[in-house]
Amino acid sequence: xxxxxxxxxxxxxxxxxxxxxxxxxxxxxxxxxxxxxxxxxxxxxxxxxxxxxxxxxxxxxxxxxxxxxxxxxxxxxxxxxxxxxxxxxxxxxxxxxxxxxxxxxxxxxxxxxxxxxxxxxxxxxxxxxxxxxxxxxxxxxxxxxxxxxxxxxxxxxxxxxxxxxxxxxxxxxxxxxxxxxxxxxxxxxxxxxxxxxxxxxxxxxxxxxxxxxxxxxxxxxxxxxxxxxxxxxxxxxxx
Length: 239
Hints:
By secondary structure, the chain is an alpha/beta fold. It has eleven helices and seven strands. It has helices at 3-12, 17-32, 52-56, 68-77, 110-120, 140-144, 153-160, 177-189, 195-199, 204-215, 217-220; strands spanning 39-44, 59-64, 84-86, 95-101, 121-132, 164-172, 231-238. It has a seven-stranded mixed beta sheet with strand order 3-2-1-4-5-7-6, sandwiched between helices. The longest helix has 16 residues, at 17-32.
């Protein structure tokens, strides 16, 4: 990602409706599979560390981030947390759980990184991935974020099925899909840059409303799959 994007994430990750709601949805999926405590967890591509404290409820968390400014921020942010460490190197067959939240779309060879995730996990370990959905929504925002692609469930399944048993796979951010998709398409075809607007926390009322709508999906995802959405969430178990 561009440096100003990282800095904006740092400024907005605690308050922005999308970051906070996505975190709750991720945790609800992890709780559903009944993971034990005291896990070895890897937050791969942690960005501004939105999900790290949540993951630390499950055990010891290794935080991996390559962007230098953000990495320094993470070290300062979590320096007093005994069960959280920012790492430079990753260990093979070491982790019980890997979170890659909106990460693999930034990587040119996504098949290679999925294979590497499999090597890092213990046998029977779990991976939770979120990605942006539908290439027709690829816009200037994706370009600013240095995305190579967006996904659909079929393509994501094909990418992971050789290494992982897929235990949960669904689109999400379903309820807001139509207004967000229409807005993206209008801005896309007018060739407008809108990432700063999209990733800056809106006023309190709008932020609260969008968060309530988005986070409500965690209750539905416990027992159904959404047919479409702005993003996709996948939970897999290493074969």
